[in-house]
């Protein structure tokens, strides 16, 4: 468990107490004794320039000892960090690092990262696996972020050996949490409910996934991952037979396996508001899909529920499904605690 405290300006400190700090303390103490001791007669002083040089040398050694050397062995292990610097995101957005190749020493990587927030926020790192098999490290708060919070993620990754590889960059990125907006897609009532700051602002007729194997919507709570004005959809992209190949408008990705909120295709419009008939997505009228697209940001939470939906068998790594499990269970995915 990690509790993030409000950002403050830290007091000056010397890192590496013990061996590095002790000589510095001794040198400074000696200087004070030499310049302050006396019995009312002439003051005995050491060579000021020599003492200053000694102290400066100790300070430099302490500073060098506090900074671990960069790791350069092995190939570069690349990663993507979401969200981008300066972005404003929804209250469900995790800090997310997806790695290009497997991370062997997950604990070392996790310990090199810190998250700070402008409001007190409890949260935890957790390791998940995406449907494509990539390692992903997410930091999610216990509860959705408070609107207006500034979040900073830092990491001295260049000093970490993730296991036979190295990182070529450190992290220092800040983003902002926007207003609180949460969506609920209810497959039983065929309605998408939009709540903003705790109040219902819109109830939209929708159609969810058919209650047929391979076409059901997936239960859970997700942070919206991408916004795409046009999306090319084909059943072959998720391993199924080619029984549809279409381009849809106003797509907002829910899962990596192809679930979106989007404008329903023309031939499916008759099912909107009364029947679950999609291949797993949440479809609606063109006007409502455009409204959702224009009034939604990445990181907004959507909960999918209903008797005709199925469990997300891929777990929290399929999209930002971090919120689909309880916080106590999420904390168990940390490798450093």
Summarize the structure.
This protein is α+β, with helices and mostly antiparallel strands and 337 residues long. It is 16% helix and 31% strand.
Structural commentary:
This protein has 337 residues and is α+β, with helices and mostly antiparallel strands. It folds into 3 domains: 20-28 and 45-63, no CATH class; 75-177, Immunoglobulin-like (Sandwich); 181-331, L,D-transpeptidase catalytic domain-like (Beta Barrel). Helices cover 16% and strands 31% of the residues. It is built from 5 helices and 20 strands. It has helices at 21-36, 48-66, 106-111, 286-294, 327-331; strands at 2-4, 75-76, 79-82, 88-89, 95-99, 113-117, 121-129, 135-141, 150-155, 165-166, 171-177, 181-186, 191-196, 199-205, 220-223, 226-234, 245-253, 260-263, 282-284, 301-305. The strands form 5 sheets. The protein has a 5-stranded antiparallel β-sheet with strand order 1-7-8-5-3. A 5-stranded mixed β-sheet has the order 14-13-12-20-15, with no helix packed on it. The protein has a 4-stranded mixed β-sheet with strand order 4-11-9-6. Strand 17 and strand 18 (260-263) form a beta hairpin. Helix 1 (21-36) packs antiparallel against helix 2 (48-66).
């Amino acid at each position: 468990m990690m509790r993030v405290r409000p950002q403050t300006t830290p007091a000056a400190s010397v890192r590496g107490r013990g061996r590095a700090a002790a000589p510095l303390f001794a040198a400074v103490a000696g200087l004070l004794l030499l310049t302050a001791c006396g019995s009312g007669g002439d003051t005995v002083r050491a060579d000021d320039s020599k003492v200053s040089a000694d102290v400066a040398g100790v300070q430099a050694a302490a500073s060098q000892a506090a900074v671990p050397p960069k790791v350069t062995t092995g190939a570069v292990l690349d990663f993507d960090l979401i969200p981008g610097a300066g972005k404003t995101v929804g209250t469900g957005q995790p800090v997310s690092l997806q790695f290009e190749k497997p991370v062997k020493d997950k604990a070392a990587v996790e310990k090199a990262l810190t998250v700070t927030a402008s409001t007190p926020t409890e949260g935890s790192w957790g390791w998940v696996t995406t449907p494509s098999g990539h390692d992903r490290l997410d930091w999610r708060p216990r509860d959705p972020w408070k609107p207006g919070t500034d979040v900073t993620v830092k990491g001295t990754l260049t000093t970490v050996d993730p296991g036979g590889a190295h990182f070529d960059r450190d992290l220092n990125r800040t983003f902002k949490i926007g207003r609180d907006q949460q969506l609920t897609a209810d497959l039983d009532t065929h309605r998408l409910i939009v709540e903003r700051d705790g109040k219902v602002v819109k109830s939209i007729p929708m159609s969810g996934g058919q209650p047929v194997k391979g076409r059901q919507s997936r239960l859970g709570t997700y942070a919206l991952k991408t916004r795409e004005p046009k999306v090319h959809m084909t059943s072959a992209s998720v391993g199924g037979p080619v029984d549809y190949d279409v381009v849809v408008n106003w797509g907002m990705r829910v899962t990596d396996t192809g679930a979106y909120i989007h404008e329903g295709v023309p031939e499916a419009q008759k099912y909107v508001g009364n029947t679950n008939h999609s291949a797993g997505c949440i479809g609606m009228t063109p006007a409502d899909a455009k409204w959702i697209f224009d009034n939604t940001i990445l990181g907004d939470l959507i909960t999918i529920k209903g008797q005709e939906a199925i469990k997300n068998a891929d777990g929290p790594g399929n999209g930002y499904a971090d919120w689909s499990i309880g916080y106590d269970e999420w904390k168990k995915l940390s490798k450093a605690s």
